Amino acid sequence: MTARDQAVQRSGTERLIRVELFCIGFTFLVVNYQIYAARAGFIARNPDYVARKPPTISRAISDPEIGPGFAFWIGISAPIVFVGIAALFALLAKQLLASGHAGTPRGRRAILACGLTVMLQGLASTGMVILSVFRFPDHNDMHMVGSYLFFISEAVMVTSMLVAQYMVFRLVGGGVLLPFMARLRWRLVWLTPVGGVIYLLLFVAKDFDLGTWQKPMYTAYVLTEPALISLMLSLSLSFHVDLIAALWRHSRAS
Question: What is the pLDDT of residue 8?
């Protein structure tokens, strides 16, 4: 490869890195702010409801003073996070192709895992839009469809994301991924599925009469919802450590 070819390749890699850094960083800040601000705003505006039970995010955005703004920002974030995840896995696929391992059985499985991750994020982004646009009390069924689509797709996506990045790392051995970060994320791969199962169990249990346990169980359910979203966003954001280091290395090489 000539020096010019290497420079072009570095330039393409740097553009993908910058796209990922902006998109995932933007989504992390905006979505986290929106979910916690929506609950805080609802609590301040509806003390009578809060005296009975804490609000879920879905209930918070049912407030006509909160829901439209929430839908606006989530509607912007949904395609942006999809572009960010697509850029990240385009980087990993590009690295895998350049290594010559893409045609091997393990390489094909890694490429498939990268593609599956991007597809799942597309479904999760669609769910984000649906649940934010269709809100209680007028669109209960569509809101629940969006919620199920988002939580299930996103939980599986984050798990697939961590598996796929480790598969690429094992084949290529570094590149845009820092070895210690790839290994750390692999050790944390259980967090999202376990968190999703806990949330699902709480979601089902809240409809049962549990006596004195009803209120603390419902509170745990309500708090688990934003915590799980923040966890999934944080695992995606963790790639910033790798990519900022890679961008610094590329800028020095230039």
Answer: 47
Q: Please give the pLDDT value at position 84.
A: 98
For residue 127, the Cα-to-chain-centroid distance in whole angstroms is: 12
Taking the C-alpha atoms of residue 153 and residue 224, their distance in angstroms, rounded to an integer, is 17
Dig out the tokens for 26 from the structure: 């933007």
C-alpha 170 chain-centroid distance: 23
Q: Find, among 64, 52, 161, 51, the residue nearest to 114 by Cα.
A: 161
CA distance 121 to 153: 7
Pick the closest to residue 109 from 170, 157, 159 (CA basis): 170
Closest CA relative to residue 134, chosen from 62, 63, 35, 82: 62
Distance between the two ends of the chain, CA-based, in angstroms? 15
- Ranges of each domain in the chain: 3-187+233-253
The DSSP code sequence of 191-210 is HHHHHHHHHHHHHHHTTS--
pTM: 0.94
Sign, CA torsion 19/9/102/99: negative
Phi, psi of 208 (to 5 degrees): -95, 150
Q: 34: exposed, middle or buried (C-beta count within 10 Å: 0-12, 13-18, 19+)?
A: buried
Tokens 């697939």 belong to residue: 160
**Tokens 């597809």, located at residue:** 119
- Say what the alpha-carbon torsion angle 90, 88, 194, 212 is, to the nearest 10 degrees: -130
| Percent of the chain at pLDDT exceeding 90 | 87
Return the pLDDT at 9.
61
Position 111, amino acid: I
Q: How many helices (H) and strands (E) does the chain have?
A: 10, 0
Intervals of the chain under pLDDT 70: 1-10, 254
